[in-house]
Amino acid sequence: MNIYFLVEGRHTEKKLYPEWLKYLIPELKRVTYHDEAKNNNYYLISAKGYPRILYDSLDNAIDKIKETNNYDYLVLCLDADEETVSEKIDEVNQHIQEKKINLGDTKIEIIVQNRCLETWLLGNNKIFNSRQPLETPLSDYVNYYDVSQDDPEKMGDYDMRNHADFHCEYLKEIFRAKNIVYNKKHPGDTKKEYYLEQLQTRVKDNPTHLETFQNFLRFCNLIKRQLY
Fold first, then answer.
1. Is the torsion defined by CA of 108, 121, 163, 204 positive or negative?
2. Residue 201 C-beta-side C-alpha neighbours within 13 Å
3. How far apart, in whole angstroms, are the C-alpha atoms of residue 31 and residue 40?
């Protein structure tokens, strides 16, 4: 089993996904170069943004997969941003069809982060409890939408430039209230096992929350089953 991960983000996904995969699929070992994958390995590379992931990096990934002929999955991880999840998936599939992409036995998996990776990270109820005393602007954000109670994937944009900007800012304020730092280059505690476990607890306790994060977990469970 070998997996080629192509992630949209320039920084966070490159640091977060490898740490989470250590906990979710410890049998898979990361390789530094795409042609090093032998057995139960994965390769992960950033597309450095959208639309580059579709109109540049995807072609490069396909060439590398065909060159090695040793990957079972190509996994695209990208943000929904201002589109719905179904619209983003349709966009990717349409691009694949228009380019007449055929990878033979290599399956293509699309992981959409709705609205962005920070949206998933807002689901940790251990690091944030809206009943504690809050200062502005976090208190304003909670009054607008309480992510400790309601599904972060359903949250609006608070009249900011877009959903991702607000969701990221909300997360930063939650961390700031704990006197810790989160930013895209230094995702901090979000890489740790306890943080991932809290997100898993959130969706277990609230099965309708963080549906796209659940899709990611389901994919990881599928891979684990295929390894045995």
1. positive
2. 12
3. 10
What is the pTM for the complete model shown? Answer: 0.97
Based on the domain organization, do 124 and 111 belong to the same domain?
Answer: no
Q: How many domains does the chain have?
A: 2
Nearest residue to 2 via CA among 99, 93, 105: 105
Dig out the tokens for 8 from the structure: 């949209």
Kindly report the number of other CB atoms within 10 A of residue 225's CB atom. Answer: 8
Q: Are 63 and 97 in contact (CB under 8 A)?
A: no
Could you report how far apart the first and last alpha carbons of the chain are, in Å? 10
Structural domain harbouring 61: 2-115+211-226
pLDDT tens digits for 179-208? Answer: 999 999 999 999 999 999 999 999 999 999
Q: Cβ(98)–Cβ(131) under 8 Å?
A: no
Half-sphere exposure of 226 (CA within 13 A, CB side): 15
Do 158 and 95 fall into the same domain? no
CA dist 92 and 82 (Å) reads 15
